[in-house]
Amino acid sequence: MPTLHWIGKDKVINHHREVPYKVLEHQYRFTAEQGTITSGDGHSSPLPGRGAGGEGGNLIIQGDNLEALKSLLPRYEGKVKCIYIDPPYNTGNEGWVYNDNVNDPRIKKWLGDVVGKEGEDLSRHDKWLCMMYPRLVLLHKLLAEDGVIFVSIDDIEVAVLRLLMNEIFGSNRFVCQFIWKSRTSEDVRALTGVSNDHEYVLTYGRSEMQRFHGVAKDLSKFTNPNNDPRGPWRSADMTGLASITQRPNLHYPITDPTTGVVYQPGERGWRFDAAGMERRIAEGRIIFPAKASGRPRQKL
Q1: pLDDT in tens, 55-64
Q2: Which of 56, 67, 160, 216 could form a Cys-Cys staple with 32, CB 3.0–4.6 A?
């Protein structure tokens, strides 16, 4: 498996073990049916249930998130089913409430203490990776066996974050990389001339085959009038999406093997190339119309 290396990695790879356990000082009380863990720097995740973190099962922790995560281990290690974090994107923007170029004085001090003099040569990306690694390790420890973690990020660090998550959680624990639309209008300020309108949410599970329920399939649309051994199916269009100039390989005639009627492709051709169509016809996956004026469709 590819391994990610950066300046300071050897200093932070075991840093989570050196972070002291601190006792949480109770100052406020809230009541709620469903609990949530929230650290002062934006980490949050649901608790196992009512009463886990107080009367209502809620904890709001203000302070350094590394120390906050470590303080939760004795009680919640391996028990948190869902974690969502929104770390700094490392854009270089210093005008945010959270300094987003990892030059916040607290982070710089932490890097100096942990990485040492070598930290003076760290690039912005090295600093970001040093900051992220021990926090992700602790989050991995908090995650339940059937738990899932979601991490928001954008193009600047998504590539290295994926490698970092693979190393800590395991590449076989990768579930998916969600893409969400972050803006609806063009960004005319973009220096590259490219308007980026989306960000990502990397998703990993603690177990190898973590699955989501997804959208329930409407089985009322599926029948099996011809007793297909593969089970119920529904009819679907198989018109292509490209002109003959764009995709000439999708424009060819097909023949009903029973009637010999030949069907020409439309302006957009077929959805499959000739070899794929022949295979589907042989497998009985193509539905030919009763009339020569109809259009062939496919079984789904």
Answers
A1: 456 788 888 8
A2: 56
